[in-house]
Amino acid sequence: MSETVKLSLDEIRDLSLSILTKSGFGPDHAVAIADTLTTCQIDDCQSHGLFRLFMCADTIKAGQIDGHVEPVLEPSDNAVVRVNAQGGMSLLAFEKALPVLIEKTRTHGIAAMAINRCFHFSALWPEVERLSSAGLAAMAMVPSHSWVAPAGGTRGSLGTNPLAFSWPRRGKDPFTFDFATSAFARGEIELYRRAGKPLPEGVAIDKYGNPTTDPQAAMDGAMLTFGSYKGSALSIMIELLAGPLIDDLTSLESMEYADGAGGAPYHGEILLAFDPAQFSGGRVDENDARAERLFTDITDQGARLPSQRRFAARARNTERGYVEIAKTLHGDLQALAEQAQA
Ligand code: NDP
Ligand code: PYC
Questions:
Q1: Is the ipTM of this complex over 0.95?
Q2: Can you give the chain as a three-state secondary structure string?
Q3: Measuring from atom 18 of ligand 1, which residue has the nearest CA?
Q4: CB of 123 sitting under 6 A from ligand 1
Q5: Structural domains for the chain
Q6: Which one of 65, 81, 158, 241 is at 20 to 30 Å from 141 when CA atoms are compared?
Q7: Known catalytic residue: 74?
Q8: How far is the CA of 322 from the centre of ligand 2 (A)?
Q9: What tens digit of pLDDT does each residue of 156-165 get?
């Protein structure tokens, strides 16, 4: 980052709350969103921290979202928790359904949460880490807009479709990963465009199907999946599990629904949770130790576990009591706060 501005942890949350409420989100949604953005910014997740306030404000401006609507939990006597966001942001729906998912996972050993009819803009690791901090292993998946070409294709059919996983570790940070199945997240490409930096090779094609490193040409053309046909197949799986399986939209359908309006995509999300106590054949401690042996074997080679950078950022930023964000981003956020008020 070139020039930076220091914001205290309270300032991150206050700035988020102020922009969200002035933009038109009711207090419950504003708090759920501001808490997630603050959590992400403390971990130095630049593409899904404060930067995402622009997407939140654009979503309200596009006129499709209800900033005040209450999510509705559907009654269920099996291991599936369904929560209907009713056209609001996903995060409040997640908060409402989380205790039920934890309870059902402890009852059945495995349970799922389907969030339906939601606008979605956020990173998934804060959600799977809420489950791993309750001692459960968890996965989350979500489609987005059809910005991403399938392997061998020339136009967007798939979303950037993140996959997140978290595994609880006693007395330690969990093993967590969370990544887009596109080579780059859309938010990352937007950050490259803002910084005037070229993309690496292999991230996108332009609207004529030619490889490009120009972020704007990439956004006008199509993004590529990571790992060629492997990332492409994972991305299709996410479309299916977080789309038709749960009676919600694919990224193609989300793009059609938006009909050119800006803001966050509109679709569903699926989370799966596993209770190790019920899968471990009464040998939770031994099996935990075997998982730890694997982590040690990895780190002993000098390889790092995913999320180590994030946990280090969290420890550093929490200890010193502030985060650093780009001065240009801070200026743009202040302008957004003023516009939202006008
Ligand atoms: P990154 O490529 O930044 O990171 C992906 C994961 O890989 C992280 O867990 C990261 O850990 C880990 N990692 C990175 N480098 C290494 C390494 N050398 N060794 C081991 N692990 C490593 O993620 P993306 O840009 O793809 O995604 C960023 C965020 O965007 C995610 O949180 C995702 O949920 C969100 N997103 C949301 C979408 C939505 O529709 N809501 C769509 C797409 C993305 P670490 O953080 O410690 O570096
Ligand atoms: O970064 O790809 C992305 C993204 C899409 C929706 C929210 N973030």
A1: yes
A2: CCCEEEEEHHHHHHHHHHHHHHHCCCHHHHHHHHHHHHHHHHCCCHHHCHHHHHHHHHHHHCCCCCCCCCCEECCCCCCEEEEEEEEEEHHHHHHHHHHHHHHHHHHHCEEEEEEEEEECCCCCHHHHHHHHCCCCEEEEECCCCCCEECCCCCCCCECCCCEEEEECCCCCCCEEEEECCECCCHHHHHHHHHHCCCCCCCCEECCCCCEECCHHHHHHCEEEECCHHHHHHHHHHHHHHCCHHHCCCCHHHHHHHHCCCCCCCEEEEEEEEECHHHHCCCCHHHHHHHHHHHHHHHHHCCCCCCCHHHHHHHHHHHHHCEEEEEHHHHHHHHHHHHHHHC
A3: 304
A4: yes
A5: 74-182+225-311 (3.30.1370.60)
A6: 65
A7: no
A8: 25
A9: 999 999 999 9
